[in-house]
Each structure stands twice: as C-alpha cells, then as structure tokens.
C-alpha cells in the first residue's frame, strides 16, 4: 500500500517575479548606499551634537521599524496555515515543487511562524526602547551632557548640575 503525497508544482512566473524583486531591492540598496548616504552623512556632520544624535536615533528607529511588515507577513502566513491546516495552504504560490504537509505538522509550522512574527515585533519594540533609553542616559550624564547642551558649566551656580545661571 502506497501513500500518495500531494505535490504543488512550482510557479515559474512567481519565482521570476520574486527574484526580480529581490534583485531590484539589492540594486536600490547599493545605489542608496553609494549615492544617498554620503550626502546625508555630510549634512549630519554639520549639525550640532544634540540634533545629530536625535536624527541618527530617528534613522535607527526607522530602520528597525522597517522590519515590522515582514513580521506581520509571517503572522498572516502562519494564521492561514493554521486555518487550512496545510502547508502550503490552498492557493499559495511556491517557487519550487513542494509536498503539502497537513495535520499536526502543518499546525505546528503555522504556530511557529506566528510566534516568530510576534517575537520579531517584541524584539523590535524593545530595541527601540533600549536605544532611546541609552541615548537619554548619555544626554543626562554629567560627563556627556556638555556635548548635548550648548551651555558651559558654571561653578558659581548654586546647583551642581549643568544649568543656565
């Protein structure tokens, strides 16, 4: 007695579009790195320290935030796999011939994708909070605050902090 496995055939057109998209993203990244980043870095170098750090923090947060759509996509695919109890789910395009996994294995894989997406979002949010808190600590420490405030320390001030007197 043989068990026949259902195989979903590869969609060549989808594979071509997917890899063309990857190639375009790589080319755009290289062009941005070579032609957009240097002028932006020159502009940032001319800013005062406080503004430079704030702009770089915003850029870091935007970079981290750009991974959230990927996490949402993982969650959506995982939910569809759990809903149909099959991986790949019915109607899903594949880039190579794929055996359909059903039952507990498919459900486990779907839940794993959902958990992975949630973990990515949690890590991104905690990374944003951590970078912000680290920068705040630098801004408010006695050693680094002169770099962020355009006021010199006045020993005649009644307080021991960096203030205007």
List keywords for this structure.
165 residues; mainly alpha; two-stranded antiparallel ribbon; 5% strand
How is the topology of this model organized?
Layout: E1 7-8, H1 12-45, H2 49-65, H3 68-84, E2 86-87, E3 98-99, E4 101-102, H4 104-140, H5 145-148
Antiparallel strand pairs: 1-3, 2-4
Helix pairs in contact: 2-4, 3-4
Q: Distance between the terminal alpha carbons, to the nearest Å?
A: 91 Å
Question: How many β-strands, per DSSP?
Answer: 4
- How much of the sequence is in beta strands? under 5%
Order of helices and strands: EHHHEEEHH
Count of the domains: 1
Query: Order of strands across the widest beta sheet?
Result: 1-3
Low-confidence stretches: 160-165
Gross morphology is elongated
State the helical fraction.
55-70%
Q: Which whole number gives the mean pLDDT?
A: 86
Main β sheet profile: 2 strands, antiparallel
Helix-strand category:
mainly alpha
Task: List the total number of helices.
Answer: 5
Radius of gyration: 25 Å
Question: Mind explaining what this structure looks like?
Answer:
The protein is mainly α and 165 residues long. The protein has one domain. Helix content is 66%, strand content 5%. The chain has helices at residues 12-45, 49-65, 68-84, 104-140, 145-148; strands spanning 7-8, 86-87, 98-99, 101-102. The strands form two sheets. The chain has a two-stranded antiparallel sheet with strand order 1-3. Helix 2 (49-65) packs antiparallel against helix 4 and helix 3 runs antiparallel to helix 4 (104-140). The radius of gyration is 25 Å and the shape is elongated. The protein starts with 6 loop residues before the first strand and ends in a 17-residue tail after the last helix. Residues 160-165 have low confidence and may be disordered.
């Amino acid at each position: 007695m043989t068990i026949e496995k259902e195989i979903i055939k590869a969609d060549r057109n989808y594979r071509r579009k997917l890899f063309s998209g990857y190639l375009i993203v790589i080319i755009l990244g290289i062009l941005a790195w070579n032609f957009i980043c240097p002028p932006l870095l020159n502009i940032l170098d001319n800013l005062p320290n406080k503004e430079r750090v704030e702009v770089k923090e915003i850029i870091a947060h935007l970079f981290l935030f750009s991974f959230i759509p990927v996490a949402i996509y993982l969650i959506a695919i995982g939910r569809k796999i759990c809903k149909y109890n099959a991986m790949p789910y019915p109607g899903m395009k594949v880039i190579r011939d794929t055996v359909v996994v059903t039952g507990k294995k498919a459900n486990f894989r779907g839940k794993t994708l959902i958990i992975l997406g949630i973990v990515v979002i949690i890590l991104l949010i905690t990374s944003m909070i951590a970078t912000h808190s680290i920068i705040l600590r630098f801004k408010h420490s006695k050693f680094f605050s002169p770099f962020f405030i355009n006021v010199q320390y006045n020993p005649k001030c009644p307080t021991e902090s960096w203030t205007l007197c």
